[in-house]
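User: Could you go from structure to sequence for me? I need the amino acid at each position, not a summary. C-alpha cells:
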C-alpha cells in the first residue's frame, strides 16, 4: 500500500514510510520520541555544549588570574 501511494505522490516508499512513522509518533500512536521531544533534546544538547565551553573559559581565566595574583604577591 505504501509503495503505491509513494508512486502516486512521486516519492520513494521508504521516505513515505518514515513520514508515516513520524506522524504516528507525533500523534502518540507509535513508540519513540515525538518531533517536539527530539527538537527539545537537540536544543538542550546545544545549550549544554555552550555552558561547558563557558565553564572551560571561566576555569582557564580563573587559573590565569590566580597565577597573576600569586606572581604579584611574591615580587618585592
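Assistant: Here is the amino acid at each position, in order:
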Amino acid at each position: 500500500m505504501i509503495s503505491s501511494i509513494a508512486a502516486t505522490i512521486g516519492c520513494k516508499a521508504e521516505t513515505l514510510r518514515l513520514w508515516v512513522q513520524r506522524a504516528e509518533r507525533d500523534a502518540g500512536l507509535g513508540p519513540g520520541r515525538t518531533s517536539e521531544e527530539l527538537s527539545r533534546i537537540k536544543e538542550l544538547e546545544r545549550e549544554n555544549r555552550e555552558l561547558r565551553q563557558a565553564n572551560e573559559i571561566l576555569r582557564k581565566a580563573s587559573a590565569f588570574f590566580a597565577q597573576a595574583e600569586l606572581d604579584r604577591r611574591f615580587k618585592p
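One structural detail worth keeping in mind: The mean pLDDT is 92.
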